Amino acid sequence: MSKKLLTPEELVKDLKQAFKSKIKDAKIERRAVGVKKKERTALWLKADKESLHDIVKHLKNYDYPHLAVVSGNDLGKTIELIYHFTVYYGNPLQEILINISVELPKEKPAIPTITDIIPGALVTEREKQEMLGVKIEGIPDGRRIFLPDDFPEDVYPWRKDEKGPQKMVRDLYEVKK
Amino acid sequence: MSKMSYSIPIGPIHPALKEPVMFEFEIEGERIVGVDFKVGHVHRGIEWIGTQKNPLQILPIAERICGICNISHPIAFCMATEEAAGIEVPERAQYIRTITAELERIHSHILWAGVAAHEIGFDSVLYLTWRVREKVLDLIEYLTGNRITKAMFTVGGVRRDITEEQYPKIREALNYYKEMFNKLKHVFLDDKTVKMRSRDCGILTKKEALELCAVGPTARASGVKKDVRVDYAYAAYGDLDMKTVTPDAVTGEVKGDVYDRIIVRLLEVAQSVDIIEQCIDNMPSGDLVTEPKPAKLLALLRKAVGEGVGRAEAPRGEVIHYVKLTGEEHPYTWKVRAPTYNNLMPWIPMLMGEQIADIPIVAASTDPCMSCTNRVTVVKKGRVDILDHEHLHKLSVEKTRRLMQ
Q1: pLDDT band at B371 (very low <50, low <70, confident <90, very high)
Q2: Least CB-packed of A11, A53, A89, B173 within 10 Å?
Q3: Are B257 and B400 found together in one domain?
Q4: Do A72 and B89 touch (CB under 8 A)?
Q5: Pick from A120, A145, A146: CB nearest B211
Q6: Considering the domain boundaries, does residue B58 fall inside one?
Q7: Which chain A residue has its CA at the smallest distance from B332's CA?
Q8: Do residues B98 and B236 lie in contact, with contact meaning Cβ atoms separated by under 8 Å?
Q9: Does A169 fall in a domain?
């Protein structure tokens, strides 16, 4: 990369400038490890679900964002998705992990796909659909990936509410195949 | 599907490795023109099980996500939990973590080299590499008490020390690998048969590797310099002198084919030997764990509120665990992402345009690990029209013979 690498502070400042109030709660976490106490840096951002797509596009200005995975939490009234990106890899000890969290309301848990920006996001987006019952809008391939085809409809293994797997696991004999 | 093509399902009994995955190929003559896959046949719901257990009970489960990466998963889980609970790890423990992780890489890469040789019908090399691998397994057993599941880690440190009395045996094994390295390099990189089957086969370009989020040796062989150990300080790696391995170090260019993936893994074996040497030369003294009493540690974890991400470079690429603690007995969320998960999509461009006989070696070239990737139990209806591993392997061996004539 010939481009100048931004420090985590500059990166947050730049993102905040570009997205203003759409990015809330930017937090920089540093941890020093080993004898030489070299640091690693992680950013934790909370973003609006409408602006996620644009933020990912914006990340491309820094480096090609490598999407590690999208993890998810059922927070009761909302479903939280956390996109774990890394930028500046290939530069020893300067990689920055960017965790972007978006919350989706349970009544309509939907978010646009980012596969048009990062095609490799498909596997993890398919997984979020089947595991959390999130609708990924515009996903090029919406089939299940890990769950079998005869897994009951409307049961989502990572949910903690009535759509979760608790009842299914308890009363396995009732499950229709 | 065009008129001329037909489709072949392969699996769920795996074509190349001994693990289940379902491929559906669209074939025109001998050439692959379409690839689709289905995974999940060995999904065991481990993430869900984890949310019913306390962090110390999760450790043995994390270790059993994968038979080979049984260091990488616990290390990533420990780091995520330590981040979430704000626990510091003693320096000595970080060095011991690094040494065990590198021993795992040596055995995994050599195991892969044997599998790759077998896939192209070069079985004498399989026997050679697996014999060479025994040495590191013996060393692992000597240091940790077990060949495979090592139970070395706990949240906040390690459970066993590596003492100075053990150094001579470590050095002896490392010297053995230094001697063997040139022999293995000669067998894999100079041999005509290996070259014929792996050069320009299963190409993944740098652009594709970036777009499809490839990780580990698969990404590095395509010229993407991405190695968690170098880029992002964890365990003792921040202290060490090491560089990301790319195939141009040997050939001067990056092609992103199977041959390049062989180069990267071979060089990484040498790199691991070097890392272990650096670690035992500079091993700091001190504690092994932050909190040696499990009951106290659990009480601390029960009160902790926070979230953390643990990342480690497994032999196949980056492993990432996400843990959320909410001040309860069990973690609220545990997400595991194994390297093969990200290396699934890159299979498509690699296999496109190749021949059926190349499927085993190309599929094996990412060193896929399905048990890592899948995590819920599945019963699959039997299919009749299956090309099984035996048949594919036969095709692959025949192709090698044909090329040799």
Answers
A1: low
A2: A53
A3: no
A4: no
A5: A120
A6: yes
A7: A73
A8: yes
A9: no
Least CB–CB distance from A35: residue in B91, B210, B332: B91
Q: What CATH number does the domain containing B136 carry?
A: 1.10.645.10
Count: domains in chain B: 2
* Whether residues B285 and B138 fall in one domain: yes
pTM of the model: 0.91
Element (H, E) at B272: helix B258-281
Task: Read off the pLDDT band of B388 (50, 70, 90).
Answer: low
A14/chain B closest Cα distance in angstroms: 22
Identify residue B295 by its one-letter amino acid code: A
ipTM: 0.94
Distance CA A141, CA A152 (A): 20
Task: Count the domains in chain A.
Answer: 1
Give the SS3 label for residue B263.
helix
CATH code, domain carrying A138: 3.30.460.80
Question: Domain for residue A171, yes or no?
Answer: no
> What domain range includes position A44?
8-149
Cα angle A145-A149-A153, degrees, rounded to a multiple of 5: 100
CA dihedral A87, A88, A90, A93 (to 10 degrees): -110
Structural domain including B22 reads 6-43+357-404
Instruction: Identify whether B100 is part of a domain.
Output: yes
- pLDDT tens for B186-207 read 999 999 989 999 999 999 999 9
Neighbours of B222 (CB within 10 A): 28
Rounding to the nearest 10 degrees, give the CA dihedral for residues B188, B226, B333, B92.
Answer: 80
One domain for residues B378 and B319? no
Both tokens of B96, joined, read 């011991």
Assign B249 to helix, strand or coil.
Answer: helix
The Cα–Cα gap between B102 and B118 comes to 24
